[in-house]
Amino acid sequence: MEHKGVTVWFTGLSGAGKTTISQKVAEELRSQNYKLEVLDGDIVRTNLTKGLGFSKEDRDENIRRIGFVSHLLTRNGVIVIVSAISPYRAIRDEVGKRIGNFVEVYVNAPLETCEKRDVKGLYKRARAGEIKQFTGIDDPYEPPLNPEIECHTDKEELEESVKKVLEGLKKLGYLA
Question: Least C-beta-crowded within 10 Å: which of 47, 91, 106, 124?
Answer without folding.
Answer: 47
